[in-house]
Specification:
Blueprint lengths: L8 H12 L22 E3 L9 H5 L5 E6 L6 E7 L8 H5 L6 E3 L14 E10 L6 E4 H11 L7 H10 L25 H8 L3
Antiparallel strand pairs: 1-4, 2-3, 3-5, 5-6
Helix pairs in contact: 4-5
Bound molecules: iron/sulfur cluster (2 copies).
One iron/sulfur cluster binds next to helix 3.
């Protein structure tokens, strides 16, 4: 005679094992859950370590990080706005962050809110503009990070050289021409590659 399923030796063994072993489920939210090592929780910006480059926004699969440049504010600013309600906690932002510290996966697993704004996290960075045409060069922190990382090699690039020289107090601000046309003295200003080409060809 065929035994009912719950009397099968294999099933009985499983039942006894389940009754006598420790509980599999957690008591969250009554008892805080302790994530295991390597757990990928909520990604968090570190405002000091972030240089505002926007690489995290480029690699984010659901595009949940907005990069908003405001050139009208004084000084011009870049805002990186992360929308956690769209985040899939994949860790690509942390993996591709050039400083390795600008955004890190935390252990936080419970994010609660009642409106999209409750899930926004924001970092602001001052922007450096081309002193000739006013286009965006990069955030100041990114240029600073780059010049320090390149060391002496930074002096091979005129704009990086000007930036570092000014930071060190070795170079005064260059003469900025007025109007759309570039002039020879514009060589001593911070420039985008397009304007740099024009001033380099200026005779
Ligand atoms: S430094 Fe890292 S966190 Fe900051 S914008 Fe760049 S990639 Fe994103
Ligand atoms: S963890 Fe993934 S989805 Fe979330 S912000 Fe980073 S890259 Fe985007």
């Amino acid at each position: 005679m065929k035994l009912p399923a719950f009397l099968q030796p294999r099933v009985l063994k499983q039942v006894l094992s389940a009754i006598t072993s420790a509980r599999y489920t957690t008591e969250f939210p009554y008892v805080p859950y302790r994530p295991i090592e390597g757990f990928r929780g909520r990604p968090k910006f570190d405002e000091t370590a972030c240089i505002g480059c926007g690489a995290c926004a480029e690699v984010c699969p659901p595009k949940c990080i907005d990069v908003i440049d405001d050139l009208e504010s004084t000084p011009p600013r870049r805002r990186l706005v992360q929308h956690l309600d769209a985040c899939i906690w994949c860790g690509q932002c942390e993996r591709h962050c050039p400083t390795q510290l600008g955004i890190r996966m935390s252990n936080e697993y419970d994010c609660v809110g009642f409106s999209p704004e409750d899930f926004e996290e924001c970092v602001e960075k001052e922007l450096l503009l081309c002193e000739v045409c006013g286009t965006t060069l990069a955030p100041v922190d990114q240029i600073r990070w780059l010049t320090r990382r390149l060391g002496a090699l930074a002096f091979a690039n005129p704009t990086l050289m000007m930036f570092r020289g000014r930071e060190l107090g070795l170079i005064d601000e260059g003469v900025k021409s007025q109007g759309d046309e570039v002039v020879r003295s514009d060589r001593l200003t911070l420039q985008c590659p397009k304007c740099r080409r024009k001033t380099a060809n200026f005779v």
